[in-house]
């Protein structure tokens, strides 16, 4: 029979399919025995103290830092205080990182914990609540950011590269006309004739934003026009290519600073 404290423990898995496994968990005391993954385990402690043994020393993860456990490194886990600990974690196949870095050594973060704000920012979209979906392009976009940030924080240096404007522009023009469709980085690669990760790098350098953000902004612009024409929020969301109204609402607030409902009322009031 589990103890009273063990009965409080829980683990939840993201239900949306993707290349990256996402979990959230709570442990009131002892979490797990020493074990190792063949993936990166990258996460964030949400509350409490998350203690673990890693490479010969005991580490303590607190809210605000980022855990980066290297593939095939032995580690365990337990609560550092009587309050227990809650955390979110990503499990990422090193092959996904390697495809972006192109044969460079896998980045290593000493101690398994980093306070670097660049790494915290690079994991933000992937470590959001499990109830929030991560679409394919958003995941690929975030993975590109994360791989390069890991390399920078881990001390790797990059050579200057030439950018292919013609192919990046071909991808941008495709987004302009097809933003309401399910666009993936693979789709843009096929359209442009450029490999996915080179295209993602070129797009950022040439247009100041990522392919995912560019798609999202085109959808939000279209939503605003549809709302101004009198469509309901749900109709505007679907028409613009968002998965549902709540998805559109989150992006609307995040990008524009107000909810689409408030925007709708502002438009209505301005016409009264």
Tell me briefly what this model is.
With 272 residues, the protein is α+β, with helices and mostly antiparallel strands. Helices cover 43% and strands 20% of the residues.
Helix and strand topology:
Elements: E1 10-13, E2 21-27, E3 30-35, E4 40-48, E5 50-54, E6 57-61, E7 66-69, E8 75-79, E9 85-92, H1 94-101, E10 113-114, H2 117-122, H3 136-153, H4 165-178, H5 185-192, H6 196-207, H7 211-228, H8 233-240, H9 245-256, H10 260-271
Residue-averaged pLDDT: 90
Low-confidence stretches: none
How do the strands of the widest beta sheet line up side by side?
A: 1-2-9-4-7-10
What is the CATH-assigned architecture of the largest domain?
Answer: Sandwich
Main beta sheet strand tally, sense and closure: 6 strands, antiparallel
**Count of separate structural domains:** 3
Give the strand tally.
10
CATH class of the largest domain: Mainly Beta
Number of helices: 10
State Rg.
21 Å
Helix content: 40-55%
Content-based structural category? alpha+beta
Order of helices and strands: EEEEEEEEEHEHHHHHHHHH
How far is the first residue's CA from the last residue's CA? 66 Å
What is the CATH superfamily of the largest domain? Jelly Rolls
- The CATH topology assignment of the largest domain is Jelly Rolls
Shape: globular
Beta-strand proportion: 15-25%
Organism: Enterobacter nematophilus
InterPro entries: AraC-bd (IPR003313), AraC_XylS_family_regulators (IPR050204), Homeodomain-like_sf (IPR009057), HTH-like (IPR037923), HTH_AraC (IPR018060)
Pfam families: AraC_binding (PF02311), HTH_18 (PF12833)
Keywords: DNA-binding, Transcription, Transcription regulation
